[in-house]
Specification:
By secondary structure, the chain is α/β, with parallel strands linked by helices. Helix content is about 40%, strand content about 20%. Strand 7, helix 10 and strand 8 form a beta-alpha-beta unit.
Length: about 250
Amino acid sequence: MTRTIVVHSHRGGTGKSSVLANLALLIAAGGRRVGVVDTDIQSPTLDLLFRIGPGAGSLADYLLGRCEIETAAQKTGVPGLYVVPARTGTAALRELMSTGYDVGLLPEGFDRLSEHYALDVLLLDTHAGLNNESVTAMAGADVVMIMARADRVDLSGVEETLSLAGRLACRRALVLSMAPEGIDRVDARRRAEEVYGAPLAGILPYVPEMAALYGERLFAEAHPDHPLVGEFRTIISALDARDEVSRA
């Protein structure tokens, strides 16, 4: 049975899409079949991170009735890893904004994709903040992973997303990103879990080497032995856990 994980952030600039891409790469490299869907139609990223070109369609094309979602999934250089890009070009975005679409097509498409490719894990990237796509994705998720930068301003918006996720039948996990050097990890974990009532799945430090890649390669691919990759693996272990999370 496919395990669906939604990766979300209240604000942009958390590194959400990059982290998701690295998690997908590592999970697939471990032998599981992984699907990734970029639901951020407004500002897509995953086609660039995975270096995939125009294919037989996109999520936007599926929502507009121009293709089946199965044909929109593209193979990557990693066996068992498939990516559905959000859109190609801006025409589909303009059309979706002017005509709208049936939101019920999203969960139907996710289910079809999971069944067609016999996925073990389906990772869904979302637009920052709350909109139709992100809320619909969360509603069908097994786990909602919420990312926030390790600062007070960014964390102030996490409570709204956690509150929504707390009303859904899914586990919640919090990941802090771009943590400054020397952060007290034990204290940060204690504070986050006390305040937000959700387990802290990981604390990702700010790593200059990631910025130096300019998005041209995934970090786990370029620096497989870096400590940050170990943090990614810690997050994967937390997401794989099957324990229930108490609702705040």
